[in-house]
């Protein structure tokens, strides 16, 4: 620190010099609208933003002209076109980045671990995960692989494949526990049930004590591109809990991810 006060980074000064006040004020007008205040008068907007009525009016009318705001002459409200402002950001995000906040919300609700996986060969590969207590002997992280046939997410992904591709993806079926479905014909029947139900529940087939339920994640074209699951230890929760309590929240999570994917590709 100098005798005249704290030192300043020249880069900070450059940022301040490039600051466009009009843009900042225009964004503050957009942010003045929210769920609690979807429609506002000119006076409301001026008060919420700290702008004069004249300045608020100029920004609102500019936004009306651009199609981001509509007005009936007294009240102003945002239009759906304002969503375009977020599409550039969403388009730069990958599936894991899109899924992460929804998984976090899901875990806060069900208090169990949740993940998203994709199919790679005859394995599922974890691409996003939010964990609570460790429930497997093997630590699960992004990049972890498991045989698809013995996992809930894997079966959801396999069930979405055409029959000829499914045969190529099954690989060698080995019993990993005494509950694992390792017979091809039986597994095909199980996958048919998964396809019809729209979800898959696996009870201790990958590892003793591990239960999970999974649902598909579809892109804007309706193609299954990933799967999401909730997993728990058998000592904590039953299969009935997974189906009746966790599954509705898991489906809502998958729907939220799908909505973001549609925004990216829409």
From TrEMBL:
NCBIfam families: pcaR_pcaU. Keywords: DNA-binding, Transcription, Transcription regulation. InterPro entries: GAF-like_dom_sf (IPR029016), HTH_MetabolicPath_Reg (IPR050707), PcaR_PcaU (IPR012794), Tscrpt_reg_IclR_C (IPR014757), Tscrpt_reg_IclR_N (IPR005471), WH-like_DNA-bd_sf (IPR036388), WH_DNA-bd_sf (IPR036390). Transmembrane segments: none annotated. The keyword Transcription regulation applies. This is IclR family transcriptional regulator C-terminal domain-containing protein. Residues 20-80 form the HTH iclR-type domain. Residues 81-263 form the IclR-ED domain. The keyword Transcription applies.
């Amino acid at each position: 620190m100098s005798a005249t006060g704290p030192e300043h980074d020249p880069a900070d000064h450059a940022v301040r010099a490039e600051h466009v006040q009009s843009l900042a004020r225009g964004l503050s007008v957009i942010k003045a609208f929210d769920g609690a205040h979807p429609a506002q008068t000119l006076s409301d907007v001026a008060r919420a933003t700290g702008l004069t009525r004249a300045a608020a009016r100029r920004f609102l009318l500019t936004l009306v002209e651009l199609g981001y705001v509509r007005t009936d002459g007294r009240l102003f409200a945002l239009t759906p076109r304002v969503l375009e402002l977020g599409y550039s950001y969403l388009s730069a995000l990958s599936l894991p980045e899109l899924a992460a906040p929804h998984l976090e919300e899901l875990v806060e609700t069900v208090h169990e671990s949740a993940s998203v996986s994709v199919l790679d060969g005859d394995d599922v590969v974890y691409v996003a995960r939010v964990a609570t207590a460790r429930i497997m002997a093997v630590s699960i992280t992004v990049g972890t692989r498991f045989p698809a046939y013995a996992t809930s997410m894997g079966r959801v992904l396999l069930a979405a494949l055409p029959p000829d591709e499914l045969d190529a993806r099954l690989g060698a079926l080995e019993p990993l526990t005494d509950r694992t479905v390792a017979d091809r014909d039986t597994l095909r029947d199980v996958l048919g049930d998964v396809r019809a139900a729209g979800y898959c529940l696996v009870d201790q087939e990958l590892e003793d004590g591990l239960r999970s339920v999974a649902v598909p994640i579809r892109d804007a074209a309706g193609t299954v591109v990933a799967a999401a699951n909730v997993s728990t230890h058998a000592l904590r929760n039953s299969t009935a809990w997974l189906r009746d309590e966790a599954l509705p929240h898991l489906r809502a999570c998958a729907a939220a991810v799908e909505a973001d994917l549609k925004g990216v590709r829409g």
